[in-house]
Specification:
The complex is a heterodimer of chains A (about 55) and B (about 240). With about 55 residues, chain A is mainly α. Helix content of chain A is about 85%, strand content about 0%. The relative contact order of chain A is 0.06. Chain B has about 240 residues and is an all-alpha fold. Chain B has one domain: Four Helix Bundle (Hemerythrin (Met), subunit A) (Up-down Bundle). Helix content of chain B is about 75%, strand content about 0%. Classes of the chains: A mainly alpha (about 55), B mainly alpha (about 240). At the A-B interface, helix 2 of A face helix 1, helix 2, helix 3 and helix 6 of B.
Chain lengths: ~55, ~240
């Protein structure tokens, strides 16, 4: 209900416009999420490796 | 101070660490403003109806799809000529971002094309060169993954990048000299007579600025990641040798 009030009237092309925004923003979110996840994983591995070397 | 100082990974890490937070905020602000303005507060076009709202995604994504590859080309040339590791790693970092931008441009173009052109796809010069560019992005990323030696991978991907640049440029200029496609010429022009109306122009420009900032932010973040991965690889190689 609230969403219907906020959204502009997209007329007969509502599906096309909705799909374009949904998929594009989804892809951008995936790209950002994957970058953050991979970046953190590599940072952690490097920290562990450097810590282990200092301990030797 | 010389630009080449940033070829030093330590220098790059230090500079990018203070650049990233303001860039994240700026990207989020610009993209949110451009898309919210475009989606909620612009009128429908008299011919395209509400599908005109797709340009706030399609044009910035297409812009970044081409420019990401050109940035990779510059980095690849720097690697080939001056052998700076950070530039090769920056090119590698930009590839997945460019690939996603190309995919968004292709998808939103197809979605817009069905109601406007009557087809999702046409073997039009610009569309075809964009599809080939997308395949080049996938090939470039696959080549990096396939070769274990990072220097050899950087060499071969740089050559691939130079070859692929033909399609990056073709996807930008095909409509100008290949007069047989469905795709129209430039949507934006400095000529006021040719440019789209200001009600569409302002949010589109803000959205484009947002996509540029997002690209720079992600490239910096991912290059930092690639520098760490390279260091990890070097440590592993040292352990194996010991």
């Amino acid at each position: 209900m609230i969403l219907a009030r906020i959204l502009p009237d997209l007329g007969k092309y509502a599906t096309e416009v909705g799909l374009a925004y949904g998929v594009s923003l989804g892809l951008l979110a995936l790209l950002i999420g994957q970058s953050l996840w991979k970046g953190r994983k590599i940072k952690q591995r490097l920290q562990q490796e450097e810590k282990a070397r200092k301990g030797e | 101070m010389s630009l080449w100082e940033y070829a030093n990974p330590r220098r790059f890490m230090a500079t990018s660490s203070w650049l990233l937070p303001p860039l994240v905020v700026l990207s989020a602000l610009l993209i949110a403003t451009g898309l919210v303005w475009g989606f909620f507060f612009t009128p429908d076009d008299f011919r395209q109806g509400s599908t005109v709202k797709i340009i706030y995604l399609h044009v910035p994504a297409a812009l970044m799809a081409i420019n990401a590859w050109l940035m990779m080309l510059v980095c690849s040339l720097i690697w080939i000529i001056r052998r700076h590791h950070v530039s090769a790693l920056a090119a590698r970092a930009a590839a997945p971002i460019g690939m996603v931008m190309t995919l968004i441009a292709l998808f939103t173009g197809a979605i817009w094309g069905k109601p406007m052109w009557g087809t999702y796809w046409e073997w039009d010069p610009r569309l075809t060169s964009f599809l080939i560019l997308f395949l080049f992005y996938i090939g470039y990323m696959a080549l990096w993954e396939a070769i274990e030696n990072p220097d050899a991978a950087a060499d071969l991907t740089s050559v691939l990048c130079i070859v692929g640049s033909v399609f990056a440029l073709l996807s930008r200029y095909a409509v100008l000299f290949w007069n047989q496609g469905l795709h129209q010429g430039a949507t934006f022009s400095l000529d006021k007579e040719q440019n789209i109306s200001n009600v569409f122009w302002y949010p589109a420009v803000i959205s484009m600025a947002g996509f540029v900032c997002l690209f720079v932010t992600l490239v910096l973040y991912r290059t930092r990641m690639e520098i760490r991965r390279r260091r990890l690889h070097a440590l592993d190689a040292r352990s194996m040798a010991a």
